[in-house]
């Protein structure tokens, strides 16, 4: 799986080097990304992370659009520095001018949402359900307290959970 994607990353860098007539530092490429994002560019680490599940399910568009999208972030950062908008005109210039692709901010890949458990907390206020994530519920179990913004009472676990 990584060979095709790594090859596409290299192709994108070669296109940018030919367009801008200068070399660009190559990134580390990782397949350790899960969830809804198809790819992430870590500008200061010069790191690209890609979602292997979305890559498998959308290979052609992923190679064409997503890889170019993330490489364009690194190229824009190397050319223009920190003070540019993530999907601003500099990034859009690279997407259109270098890769001849639409500067789409987000992918449209079908995401299979997993169900999550919410832990229900309450305070004395009427209709006060506070669904906590497992992580936040774990912090409460370790002693962290959360307060209601209205009544300032500590939120207490009801013993109830719900699946979303």
TrEMBL record:
Entries under PANTHER family matching the protein: PROTEIN SPRT
Species per Swiss-Prot/TrEMBL record: Pseudomonas lundensis
InterPro entries per the UniProt record, alphabetical: SprT-like_domain (IPR006640)
NCBIfam families associated with the record: PRK04860.1 (NF003421)
Organism domain of life: Bacteria
SprT-like domain boundaries: 7-158
Signal peptide: none
Protein name as catalogued: SprT family protein
């Amino acid at each position: 799986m990584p060979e095709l994607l790594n090859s596409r990353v290299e192709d994108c860098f070669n296109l940018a080097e030919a367009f801008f007539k200068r070399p660009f530092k190559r990134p580390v490429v990782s397949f350790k990304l899960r969830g809804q994002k198809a790819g992430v560019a870590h500008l200061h680490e010069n790191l690209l992370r890609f979602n292997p599940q979305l890559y498998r399910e959308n290979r052609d568009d992923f190679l064409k659009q997503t890889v170019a999208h993330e490489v364009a972030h690194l190229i824009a950062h190397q050319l223009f520095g920190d003070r540019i908008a993530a999907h601003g005109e500099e990034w859009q210039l690279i997407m259109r001018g270098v890769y001849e692709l639409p500067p789409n901010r987000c992918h449209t890949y079908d995401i299979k949402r997993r169900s999550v458990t919410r832990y229900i907390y309450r305070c004395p206020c009427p209709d006060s359900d506070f669904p906590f994530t497992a992580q936040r519920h774990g912090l409460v179990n370790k002693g962290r307290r959360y307060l209601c913004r209205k009544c300032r009472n500590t939120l207490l676990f009801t013993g109830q959970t719900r699946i979303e």
